[in-house]
Structure formats: structure tokens, C-alpha cells
Specification:
This protein has 8 helices and 14 strands. By secondary structure, it is of the alpha/beta class. The chain has one domain: Carbon-nitrogen hydrolase (Nitrilase/N-carbamoyl-D-aminoacid amidohydrolase), CATH 3.60.110.10. The strands form 3 sheets. It has a 6-stranded mixed sheet with strand order 5-4-3-2-1-14. A 6-stranded mixed sheet has the order 6-7-8-9-12-13, with helices on one face. The longest helix has 16 residues. The termini are far apart.
Length: 278
Amino acid sequence: MKKEKIKIALAQICSRRENKAENLQKMAEFAARAKEQATDLVIFPELSLTGYVLYDQLYELAETIPGPSTKKVEAIAKKEGVYIIFGMPELSGKTRATIFNTAVLVGPEGFIGKYQKMYLPTHSVFEEKRYFRPGYQATVFNTAIGDIGMIICYDIFFPEVCRLTRLKGAKLIACISASPAVRKGYFELLTAARALENTVFLAYVNLAGVEDGLQFWGGSRLVSPTGDVLAKAKYDEEDLVICEVDYRDIKPAESFIPTLKDLRPELFSELKKQAENL
């Protein structure tokens, strides 16, 4: 039977670039601390396994999923009896140079599933399209702690990703991120908007610290189905915030803000047509 109320940990870490062993050790430590507070789900940031600023080292660091690192995170999940979401560069099982920016979900029972980032920023300080192949599928996983969807960072700028994830049944959407400080205001606005317009819980977990001169602002948060910030981590530094999701809050939110009931599906085909002719 699924839990109606769960505890989640926003595990806002500073990852060490190119050092999987150190990052895995930190993930184990944060998971153990979270479990001391009876946490059900621990969420780490985008590319938390390796760090974000990697350049061509990505080709050396990427692994298949499942693979050696996911097996190690599975062992942490099993030991602590928690579910874990984390980010890593995924090597395609079919080629040796195709890489995805991927969110992974594991639990006490082992590997559950993954989500490959759909939207790859390639502007200003970002060059993700140079290295990563985009994903194509919104994913929702039916677990003992609820129906969980995952998105990654820039995906949140595109409302159709969260909308599709919600329509596939997600009650909680985890957005893992590596957002630099100059974009703080955007993400604070968009996390609330995506939760509100889909009447869904949204857990946003961002990297902290500095990598090769790029500062990540932290500020991880849990947003309610009515757009309220229920918990928030510190800015710019590591933090572990334990907060609570009560899925029973979704039904009254859906009644008060009936956006899903009022959807106009016929507009989606028109949207597709106009987007193809930009």
C-alpha cells in the first residue's frame, strides 16, 4: 500500500568535479543523516555523481545505467532503507560516444528507473548540446512512496514537460538542477508556477558551490500544489533539509485550482502546428 505522507530530504551538495568516489561517499553520508530523521526519499542535484563542469572529461566519466555507480547508490539505498534520486552522465548501451544527462531513481529494492534530460541549454555559459543527446520521454514511476516523476533543470522552462509528467500520473515531480547564481530568480519563479499550474508537489534540488568559476546558488525547495514554498535550503552552500509531502493535499488543490479539469486538449495540436512553423 502506498504511503499518503512521506518525508523527503533536499540533499543540496557541492560535488567534487570528476571525483565519483568522493561524491558517492558524500551521498552515503547525506543519506545516513536523512535516514536518522525517518526520511523516505533523498534527492541529490543534477550530475551530482561527477560535478557539472566537465568538458571532454564527460566521455571518460559517463557510465551505462545500471552500471558501477548506480550499483553503489543502490547499496546505499538498501542499507538506509530509502529511495534516492541523483544525477549522472549516462553512456548509451549501444554506442561509445553517445551521452545523456540523466536522473536516476533507486530504492531499497534496487534500480527503479531513469529520466534523460529533454532540453539541453546551449547558450551563455552552457554547452550541453555539444556533449549530450536529448531524451524524448516523460517518465513517472509507481513506487511505495507515491507516483514520482523527474525532470532536470532547463526542462522547467518548458511547461509542457511538467504538464505531460503530471498527466502521466505524477503526484511528486523532482527537478534536479545545476543552476548558476545569475538564474536564481528564474528558478524561484518557475518552480512555483510549475507546481501551481499542475497542482503537484515539486521538489527542486540544486547544486551548491563553485566549479571552474561557475557558482551554483543552492536554494533547493519543496513547493506545494498551490505554489507555496513549504521548505527551503540555504543559498550558495551545502544543506540538508527534511520536509514533508502529504499527497492528500492534492485533491483540495485540484478542486480550488481546477487547471487539469479545465484543460483544452484541442489546443495541443494547434500548439504543435505553430511551433513547427516558428
